Structures are given as structure tokens and as C-alpha cells.
Amino acid sequence: MAKIKRNDQVIVIAGKDKGKTGRVLRIIVDKNRVLVEGVGMIKKHKKADPQRNIQGGILEQEAPIHISNVMLVDSEGKKTRVGFKVEGDTKTRIARSNGGTIAETKSEKK
After folding, report:
1. What is the rounded distance in angstroms from the CA atom of residue 14 to the CA atom of residue 32?
2. Over the chain (110 residues), what is each successive 10-residue block's mean pLDDT?
3. Could you give the CA distance from residue 19 to residue 48 in angstroms, rounded to a whole number?
4. C-alpha separations of 104 from 4, 44, 52, 101, 107 in Å
């Protein structure tokens, strides 16, 4: 079970976007990086492709940032570390700051 999952609300704790919050769009496990909505924006030059109906130009998109540079945001909007609680066969994530459980998202791919 991972500490940070897709659709979690996180805050950036290091780098040029320090202090910004956003939702995790994607996790790149083999490179230990996350894609956070609205954080680490870069400009990408895209060539037009009329056959696929793709318009060219300069696009802005999120760049992956290292997972160690983000922390989970708890229900009160403060950054928190993640802990785990095991009850029987279920393992749940808890916020270390207030002890509350972190809501699991249902739209995760297994």
C-alpha cells in the first residue's frame, strides 16, 4: 500500500512551486515521481498533425516532480505524514497530524 495515491490532495514542500497544492494525476513508480495538477508547469512545442486533427502550438502541461517533494494534505488543509493502521485483514492510511483516516478513492486501477 502506497503512502500517496492517485487523486490525493498534496502540497509541494520543495522546489520552485513550494507551497502550491494540487491533486495527484499520475504516479510514475519506477522513477519515484508524481504528476500534480497545476504544479511544475512547462511549455511544450507541439507540431500540428492534420491527419489526427491535432492543432500545433505551444502547450502548457505539468512536469513530473519527485515524490519526496510532496506531502499529503489532511482534512484540515495542513500537510501531514502518512501512517498505517491494521485492523484484522484491512490496512488503512491515517494522517499523523490528527489521527484521522484518509479517504480512499474508488476510481483506482488495480
Report:
1. 15
2. 87 94 94 94 94 92 95 88 89 86 61
3. 35
4. 11, 33, 37, 9, 9
Q: Where are the alpha helices (DSSP H) in the chain?
A: none
Q: Which residues contact 88 (CB under 8 A, 6 or more apart)?
A: none
CA gyration radius, the chain: 17
Neighbouring C-alpha atoms within 13 Å toward the C-beta of 92: 14
Q: Write the single-letter amino acid at 103.
A: A
pLDDT for res 106: 54
Chain-centroid distance of CA 83 in Å reads 17
